[in-house]
Design a protein that fits this description.
17% helix; 40% strand; alpha+beta
């Protein structure tokens, strides 16, 4: 009887110690926040993008670009438990400009005060959605001025340019013909806003004392040879507000992004 009681007490003690050890080893993230860096890295296929270098595309055409800019917004992160965090809307629009790239060819966006969590997915929009546009010019915050400075706004009535590619193209009969892709929505009459959802190759660990980095590759060639391969000489060298050509380019753009890797510090 005494032996039985001894082993019962011993088992309870081990169980209590084990539970205490597990509780101490579990990190509580409640109330914590940290920063997340998103690095956009433009390329052409498996090549680095370089201004004014000629790149081949389908249809025996080639192109070179002197400007590459696009507008991303509505960045949202999905936690491992399925909950989502939408970065504050007033600060949730960014112009990614290749001219601002660092020596590694990356354009950094820093999201501040992100709730500490283990994130498995990211989504974002290319352009500005209709709900935000309908807030009017006064409802755009600093974005309106930044877009004007970056040449990413036609006029308020027309709206924002979602992507801007400037350069030239050539084929067997044309040399250095002007190439200008200034695609966006046209007010509320033509909505070319698109959303991109990407699963992360490994979990992003946002913590108070660590700033993870998420490396997003953007393949510029997909603008021309994506869901639809377009022929530049057939009018796709000048894409602005046309109701036929702009949705095709908008749909292509959705496929140009991928997450190359995640670096947790």
């Amino acid at each position: 009887m005494k032996i039985t009681n001894f082993f019962t007490i011993l088992l309870l003690s081990v169980t209590i110690l084990s539970c205490s050890s597990d509780d101490e080893g579990t990190e509580s993230l409640d109330g914590q926040s940290g920063n997340l860096v998103i690095k956009f890295d433009n390329g052409v296929g498996d090549q680095d993008f370089i201004f004014d270098v000629s790149y081949n595309k389908s249809s025996e055409e080639s192109y070179k670009l002197s400007s590459v800019k696009y507008l991303v917004s509505n960045i949202e992160l999905t936690n491992s438990d399925g909950t989502t965090f939408l970065y504050p809307v007033d600060d949730n629009a960014f112009i990614v400009d290749e001219a601002d790239a660092n020596a590694a060819g990356e354009i950094w966006i820093t999201l501040e005060n992100v709730p500490a969590a283990d994130y498995t997915d990211i989504s974002f929009g290319v352009g500005i959605d209709q709900e935000r546009f309908l807030k009017g010019a006064d409802g755009q915050g600093d974005l309106l001025e930044i877009a004007q400075e970056k040449g990413m706004l036609w006029s308020w009535a027309t709206g924002f340019r979602f992507i801007r590619l400037d350069g030239s193209f050539s084929n067997s009969t044309i040399t250095d013909e002007a190439l200008n892709i200034h695609m966006g929505s046209v007010g509320t009459s033509l909505d070319n806003y698109r959303e991109v959802s990407l699963e992360l190759p490994n979990t992003v660990l946002v913590r108070e004392d660590a700033t993870p980095e998420l490396h997003v590759k953007a393949d510029i060639s997909v603008v021309f040879d994506g869901e639809t391969s377009v022929v530049l000489a057939d009018g796709y060298n000048q894409v602005h507000t046309d109701e036929v050509t702009t949705p095709i380019i908008a749909n292509n753009i959705m496929g140009m992004f991928s997450v190359h890797h995640v670096h947790n510090e």
